[in-house]
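User: Protein folding is very new to me. Would you mind checking the protein record under this note? It all follows right here:
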Amino acid sequence: MNRLKEAIIYNLCAIGEKVRNEAIDNGSYTDRTKNLRSSVGYVVVVDGKVYKASEFGKPDGNNEGRTAGLSYARSLAGKFPKGIVLIVVAGMNYASYVSAKGYNVLDSSELLADRLVPKMLKQLGFNK
């Protein structure tokens, strides 16, 4: 059971990196302050605790966005006290507003995750 759990965690971290990169590279908005793109990242949560947190944003981003993204992701982690969860966020408080205006903030990332997670679970022997 531990090997299976480790395999799921490892694969969710890899998927998290792909999804994070998708959001950063293909966000269709103009990031004037670099806050929004800097706030994009992920955490893998195991039984309510952050197991791994990604880098947030690009290297040329800023600390305000990184801090907001990590803080928001950590705040969501506590909502999952059992199991293994991948949480991908754009942590600025206006991210949903930008998305609602029709810009790709996390939309393409969500679609990518929707393809990769079931594929990973199938490879690990889960039916779906």
